[in-house]
Prior knowledge:
The structure is a single chain. This protein has helices at residues 47-51, 75-89, and strands spanning 18-23, 28-33, 42-45, 60-63, 110-114, 117-120. By secondary structure, the chain is an alpha+beta fold. The relative contact order is 0.12. The N and C termini lie far apart (66 Å). It is elongated. It is built from two helices and six strands.
Amino acid sequence: MSPVRRCSRTACGRPAVATLTYVYADSTAVLGPLATYAEPHCYDLCAEHSERLTAPRGWEVVRLSDPSAPTRPSGDDLEALANAVREAARPQERGGEGRNGGPQAADPMEVARRGHLRVLRSPDS
């Protein structure tokens, strides 16, 4: 017997990642993280089947999130990433002053710069 629990759907051999339980009194299907052990009245589902799960008309599906699962990036995360890329792509100011009006701190190893790429001097020279 395999130590990995498999999806309960017929002809699906993928590993289970979620457990489905029905609460008939409330007409609710509860989909949560994989249960610690297999229950006789619960169904283990793979990732694909748990994402595509639908309930009968009049029933509610409650999806419990797994706090240990990695979270998807939010719109704010994606916007912050886009802003960081835009900032890195801006041409650097040349001359004796940096962005804050003070003297620009030059890297003694940097010879030239083009966009986000830098040409570095060999440590021997």
